[in-house]
Design brief:
With about 170 residues, this protein is α+β, with helices and mostly antiparallel strands. The protein has two helices and twelve strands, in the order E-E-E-E-E-H-E-E-E-E-E-H-E-E. It has a four-stranded antiparallel sheet with strand order 3-4-9-6, with helices on one face. A two-stranded antiparallel sheet has the order 1-2. A hairpin with a 2-residue loop joins strand 1 and strand 2. The longest helix has 17 residues.
């Protein structure tokens, strides 16, 4: 895959969560990303992200959230109009203590040992889907995204005097 001329290698395939055999949805397709959001706290070491984030790869794809979500929602609505029984769930992951209420976990809840991931998820549940991966066509995102080496990204974070975070990609 190429975004703005940069080749992205080692893209991991879709994550599929299998539900019980009586579940008519059969699979939940997840799109998981590390998030940057308003009100996010700077870590004690002055970084936004836990260093373990670099374990996901050496490159970040920064996507403008509003136009990205508009494209996702438009694609889901188009599928609904075509008769596909599909549900979209989205949001920041809620991290709960690892031993607490494991039976109440959902696609937007995760054990707190993963809280360092600062995850945002999109989950698509497609009724009676018997294929493997589910492809949601949203078109090119080249106009709403930037490819940035993780090291450059981490080194370009500056905290302004008013406490706001500025991401300078110039």
């Amino acid at each position: 895959m190429r975004i703005n001329g940069t080749k992205l290698n080692n893209i991991v395939g879709p994550i599929v969560v299998y539900n019980g055999p009586d579940d008519v949805y059969q699979t939940t397709h997840l799109f998981c990303v590390t998030s940057i959001y308003s009100g996010m706290e700077i870590r004690e070491d002055g970084k936004i992200f836990d260093p373990r984030v670099s374990g996901f790869g050496d490159t970040m794809l920064i996507i403008k959230p509003a136009p990205f979500m508009a494209r996702v929602e438009k694609a889901v609505e188009k599928l609904k109009q075509q008769g596909t029984d599909i549900e979209l769930f989205k949001g920041l992951v809620e991290y709960v203590p690892a031993g607490e209420n494991q039976h109440q976990m959902s696609v937007l809840r995760k054990a707190d040992i993963y809280a360092w991931q600062e995850e945002f998820r999109l989950a698509l549940r497609v009724r009676n889907w018997h294929g493997s991966a589910f492809l949601l066509e949203i078109g090119s995102i080249a106009d709403i995204s930037h490819v940035v080496p993780i090291k450059k990204f981490i080194n370009k974070v500056e905290e302004l005097s008013d406490g706001q975070v500025c991401l300078n990609f110039s």
